[in-house]
Amino acid sequence: MRIDIISVLPELMESPFQTSILRRAMDKGLVEVHFHQLRDWAINKHRQIDDEPYGGGAGMVMMIEPIDKCISELKSQREYDEVIYLTPDGVTLNQKIANTLSIKNNLIFLCGHYKGIDQRLRDLHITKEISIGDYVLTGGELAACVLADSIIRLVPGVLNDEQSALTDSFQDDLLSPPIYTRPEVYKGLEVPKVLLSGNFRMIEEWRHDEALRITQEKRPDLL
């Protein structure tokens, strides 16, 4: 998988990709992540990439030309499965979206800034618009990191235990059941006996029942 991320502040995203699972995925050659400074495609010597909105109003708008030039150049080099715009008015990211994107080969992420991008860019290039929640961030960089993490961890070979990803919350529209580890008793609190029984059928039934109970309590909208 290759992910190209277009941003005004690519340095903001470098750290998350230098550690843990994301770094391991890149070291294994399973994923490539490339950052592109949008100002490199600016149209004047001032490296301008924003301008005032037509019709007046507060804020600035990301200009069409630098972004179009950047995406067009990337597209000339390879086929992309999706060109994704990170924006508050996109569809809210969920596990099903992450699952779907994890089997793609080439993705472009465009990080929004200011009041957003010229609408014509959405018409020309954007194939999917994604939000990570009903709130507004300074820019799309943190959202791009969240999206990348949710996708990359699902790429085959990235996790040492691939079964782990299949039992995450939301994979079957349920939240995860409670989990325990040693010691068996701590401050009078005991691990449920069924988890110590060695009866895997009973354990799986208990986990499913607990996942259902917790989902009903915390996120009934998922059911």
From TrEMBL:
Residues where S-adenosyl-L-methionine binds: 112, 132-137
Keyword terms, alphabetized: Cytoplasm, Methyltransferase, S-adenosyl-L-methionine, Transferase, tRNA processing
One Pfam family this sequence matches: tRNA_m1G_MT
Enzyme class: transferase
Record flagged with keyword Methyltransferase: yes
Metal-binding listed as a keyword: no
GO biological process: methylation
InterPro entries: Alpha/beta_knot_MTases, tRNA_m1G_MeTrfase_C_sf, tRNA_m1G_MeTrfase_TrmD, tRNA_m1G_MTases_N, tRNA_MeTrfase_TRMD/TRM10
Entry's Gene Ontology molecular function annotations: tRNA (guanine(37)-N1)-methyltransferase activity
Task performed by this protein: Specifically methylates guanosine-37 in various tRNAs.
Family: Belongs to the RNA methyltransferase TrmD family.
NCBIfam families per UniProt: PRK00026.1, trmD
Protein name in the entry: tRNA (guanine-N(1)-)-methyltransferase
